[in-house]
Structures are given as C-alpha cells and as structure tokens.
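Cast an eye over my tokenised protein here and flag anything odd:

===
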Amino acid sequence: MLPVAPFSHAPPALSLFSVRASLQGLRSASPPLSPGRPLKALLGASATALLVLVPGRRLRKLRRRVSEDGSRHPTGATSGWTKEGCEVCSQGPGYIWEWRPGVQVHFDRLAPTGGTAGSGSQDFAVVMVHGFGAESGYFDQQLKAVAAAGGTAYAMDLFGQGGSWPTDDPAPNGGSPGWSPVEGGAGDEEWGWGNSLDPRFAGSHGAGLAFGEPAWLEQLTAFVQNVVTEGRVYLLGNSLGGYLAAKVSARGVLGNRVSGLILANATPFWGWFDEGGLAPWDGHLPAPWWVRPIASTWFKSLRSNIGSMLGLVYARAGDLAVQGRLDALAGRISDAAAHPMGAAAFASILFAPRQSPSFGDALDQVAANGLPVLLLYGDDDPWVVPFWAQRAAGRVREVGEYYGLSPAGHCPHHEAPDAFNEVLVSWLRRREADPDAPEVLQVGTVVECRSETSGQGDLIRMERRL
C-alpha cells in the first residue's frame, strides 16, 4: 500500500512491473476512461506494486514510541484464546503462528463481543489482509466492528511485513553480525545474503524459502486452514491484500468455507514476471551474487519520510484524526522495514513470479461460483482510481455490491472507518441471515456520514453504485 515518492527535482521511481501493468491495462477491453482521469488510471493502476521499505535510524525513536503505544491493537486481542501451533506474542499484543519451521507469522484476533450479525451462532470469521508494507494494526477499527457484530476477527501480517519474519538468518554468512534494532546498532541489511540456505528453511519438499506472491497465497490459505476455527470465513483485503484475497477465493482450495469476499481498493496488478517465464531468478534464497548490489542500492534509494509518502494516497491527510493514525502507521512500517531481513526480502519479492489466475480472471471465477462480493472503494485514490473499481464491479455484477466513499483514498477502512464499517457490518449481517439487517443504501442513492467512529470528523459521501 506504500506510495511512490513525490516529485521533487525528479519524477518518482516507478517499477518495471508498474509500467508493464499499465500497458496491460491499455490492452484490456474496457469502457472509456473518465475525463481527466486516464493518466492517473494508466500510470497509477499498479503503482501499488512499487515495493518501498524504509529502514533508516532516524525514525527509530518514533518506532519505539509507537511500539509502546497500546493503540496498535484493539482491547482483548489476546483474551485467553488458545490454538495448537499458536502462542501469545512475547514482544507485544497479538499472536504468533509457526507457519513453517523457523517462520513465524504475527496476527491479531478478536473474539465476538456482540451477537447482532445473524442468528447468534457466532460461527463466522473475517480474515483481513493488509496492503504492501502495512500490517495488521491498521485494521483495528474493523477488528472491533466485526467482533461487535458477532463475528471473530483476524488480521494477519504477510510474510516479510509487519511482524512476520524468519526467526533466524535463513541464508547466513552474508553480512556482519550483531544487528540491533535500536539507535547506534549495526547495519540494517544483514540477513539472507549468504550463498547457502539453512536446511531448517528448506521445507518438507525442499522447495526452499521465498517471499512474494506465491508465498503469500500459500500463507493466507494455510492460515485459514490451520488457525481459523470458525466454519464460515469472509476474506477482506486492502490493496495487495485484496488482490491476494480474490485469488485465494477463486482457487477453491478452501472449499465452501469462504462465504464472501470484501475488497477495499484492491490493486489489479502485481509483479514483473510470469511463472515459468524468463525471469533471471524466482526469488528463492539463496540469491544470485548479482542481486544484492542491485536490490540494496534500490532499497536504500527508496528511504524517505514514510508519513509524507503515506499522505499522498490519503484524501484527508491534513485532518488531525487521520494524521494521528498515519503517524502511528508510519512508525510501524518503518519498524518492520528495519528488520535485518528487509533488503533480502525486498529482493525476493521483486523477482517472485505472478501466479494464476490474474486478478480479473479471479473475479470472473468468484462470480461464476456465486460468491458474494462487497467492493468498498475510496474514490480519491491516486492509484486505484474509480475506473478500476468500475471494472471490478462489472466482473462481479451478479453477486456484488459496490460503494464509493469520498473524500477517502487508497485505504478507506483506515481513513474513514465509521463509514466503511457501517457498510461492512450491514453486508455481513445480511450474509449471515439477520432478518433485521437493512441495506445501507439502495443502488443509485447517496448519503453522508461522519468519518470517525466517535461520530466526529468530516462528512463522508457514500454512494452505492451496484
């Protein structure tokens, strides 16, 4: 979900797959672009795939301050729940799941606090998947809303993001020892650059260790299979998370456990290379010798002020409440990016191949399967402009609902949580057969509501378009 750098004396750095994806969008059959928006639609469509990690020691004090702030996780995130293979996180709120030997996945879980979503069975869950560079904490308001509606809420950090990392250096002897996450510590790029893989990370089939789309799809699938105990599961994804959630839903590996799909400004494209193509490397460690200087140089060049960069894709970045959330999110992103595996993970993600089906084909399959879909998009997103939301809505017309929120940008759930949650909870209640659940809006109607859960904040215009 991280943005490109603002223009200064030079244009922002666009990734090669961002340009390729834009050209792919040009070739796709589509309705005309709205006046004044084609350049944004074409150049911004897959800018969400630009991989930005920002370590930098100058932000560590902010990271420490934010890490000590209890607002990252909703109250009750570790309230006595137990599950084999999972344990309470010793470094802060939330849980740790050992996905693979030596690989720990951080997630938040909030048990039902209410029973208004359906008949009271409370046997449904919403699994939330964040955008690139973000983490589970920016779903804090959705975790609370789902729990209050009678569901179990999960938010998982993708591998190589947030708190989901290897426990040890998987390809050691590639850097200097003694990494420290505090001011004055050793360098940031120390893990993952050795010339051999630690056998612990080889996997049961010897597939090895990699970051990126293939690993994330496997991770999300395994998380639902092994951690989520509820019978009915709704997948909610923002940006990259929506792209992944759509693909997992379409693949059918989870059978009839997936009861619905919720997309918030899902990126329609990701990655450079097709699987089985002519990529010089597939992202599996150890990396070829020539990868480190390229990836490390690019990695360092993308260091900047995270808060300012995030502000580019929020429509109301100057609002005090939004700014407070952005500052906290910026600190958490920089904290994760300073992990010693950061640069090697960045390199692995860059070269990881795209997986089938494409995002568009995934939506077609979801619709063919009759799976309900909710599209909740911020209209003021400079990347995933309404053109892409309309394309997605057209593919799921028979099974979907589409709402546009404004002013709201790339992360509407984080920028306008009250408006977002009003639609989300109503949709969940109707899916869970609550006879008292009204539709928030009829197609074609517009309402305004406050942006904050406190009832304060700006008025958000909410329009149902499908």
In short: Confidence is low (pLDDT under 50) at residues 3-71, 176-188. The chain has one domain: 16-464.
